[in-house]
Amino acid sequence: MSGRLPVEVATMDNLVNLELLANRFTGTIPKELWNAPSLQRINMGENLLTGTIPPEISQMRDMKGFFVYGNDLTGSIPYELGELSSITYARIQRNNLGGKLPSTVGKLANAEELWVQSNRLTGSIPAEIAGMVALVTLRMSTNLFNGDIPDALYSLPIVERIDIFENKLTGKLSSLIGLMPNLVFFHVYDNELTGLVPAEISNMELIKEVLLQGNDFDGTMPDEVCSIVGKLQQLVTDCRENATGFVEYSCSCCTICCDENGARCEPT
Predict the structure, then answer these.
(1) Sign of CA dihedral 214, 216, 219, 224
(2) Which domains can be identified in the chain, with CATH numbers?
(3) What is the DSSP letter of 98?
(4) Which of 23, 103, 237, 242 could form a disulfide with 1 if both were Cys (CB 3.0 to 4.6 A apart)?
(5) CB count, 10 Å around CB of 119?
């Protein structure tokens, strides 16, 4: 299907689930839709929609699933997103959204997924993200986030996947990472992180992938991390010689070594 979304959709009083995935709808999301009385799930992913996500989204207090990924939406993520206290899944990735991730996401205590990757989001990761206590998957990669990774991120109690690669994050990885018992995938490659890789990574019982390449870590991979390499599917950092014979980081146990600019990554 193609063309603009009909305004009349918003007048369907008993509509709970609006599924418009993978069509060729164009234009903006009708403002009347934000007043639909019973909507709990909107899936408009993989269309050609433009315009913004307006503040009126706050009126959809019963919304549990909001999927607008793979469009050409612009503007910023509104602060009013934090008013959707019932939301479980928010997938806003692969648009043209800019500005900061609003601190009000910390009010989304029932959200299990927050996917905002492949936009143009800037600023720091808000410390208020610690309020997302039900979060299982956090995907923020391929944006322009900067600053340190906040300690609050390491306090997420049940998170299993953190993707914050391909940003401009600086500072060090905290030893608090060892306090994340359910973390399975930790992907921070292609940032500007420095310092030592924390030995406390070895405390994570379920960890399977640790991707660290494309940063500026110092020293060598801690023995404690190497001691769990048997259960890791991937442990990757900049431990391959470049064209001049220089090794960025020493890692005798990594499953894959990259050169200093990530141009070559090969199994060890």
Answers:
(1) negative
(2) 2-170 (3.80.10.10), 195-268 (no CATH)
(3) B
(4) 23
(5) 25
